[in-house]
Amino acid sequence: MKIIVTGSLGNIGKPLTEILVAQGHQVTVISSDQKKQADIEALGATAAIGSIADVKFLTDIFMGADALYAMVPLSMTEPDLGDYLRRMAQNYVQALEPAGIKRVVLLSGWAADLTRNENIEHVFSHLKISLTILRPAVFYNNFYQSIDLIRGKGLMGMFLTLRYSGLWALLSGKTGLLLGNYGGEDRIVFVSPKDIAYAVSEELLLHPETKTIRYVGSEEMTCNEAAKIIGTAIGKPWLKWVLLSDKEMLRGLKMAKVPEKLANTLVEMQAAMHSGKALENFHRNNPKMGKVKLADFAKEFARDYHKNS
């Protein structure tokens, strides 16, 4: 099959490309970074350097392909996150219609249907294609955004860090605390990007006649249990994930000069996880868990955490 992979060689894109190439597929990887071309070609794939903001570029690349893995990277420079995501999703739709691709796997999020402003799924829904929407839970890799803050080098007070896939947290480097408007004893499903990549590779080879939704997770636990696993791996077993109120979280985002509409969207996304609604949806769909556990990831995280520390 001729398969298009978006997202460059990111957390999902790289392992997905490796899987698909190993299966013998003809893979084209879209990246906005010219420097990634050699790395993409080294994996046995074809590099297409350009932006998903360019509809003509997408249309040209999509021509003749059998299947597409589509994702929209988050942008924290956009004041209206929902509007940005919908615009990028519409670019895909405009390119897909003339290109004739019949199979699409779309990366979404496990709380996407619980928020008002982030959902891009409906943009694809009217297309007459075989569509699977993937709703992965909270990425293990989000912890990487916290390395410098957890180390506490030169930090004063509270700091804000972006978490991929809509996860935000406040971190105190001096006390070794994770904070957000979900956390503490809230039960959350975490997921390895490797397990997501495996799920994508499975779905790309299927051709359901109607739209399907697949939730993807690797392990379920409380936020404090996750913090303890990460903390133990790096020598800080006391690491806690403290729960803030929505108002406290919103105030912290505003203090960090996050645009008001974006701040409200981020708080809403986390509130859906704190309420348990995201977990209810996950359980209702009863997906099979992936193979990579948080303890496995924590070993990799610890190596990076202690590197140059």
TrEMBL record:
Residues 7-118 form the NAD(P)-binding domain. InterPro entries: Ergot_Alk_Oxidoreductase (IPR051604), NAD(P)-bd_dom (IPR016040), NAD(P)-bd_dom_sf (IPR036291). It holds the Pfam family NAD_binding_10. SUPFAM superfamilies: NAD(P)-binding Rossmann-fold domains. This is NAD(P)H-binding protein.
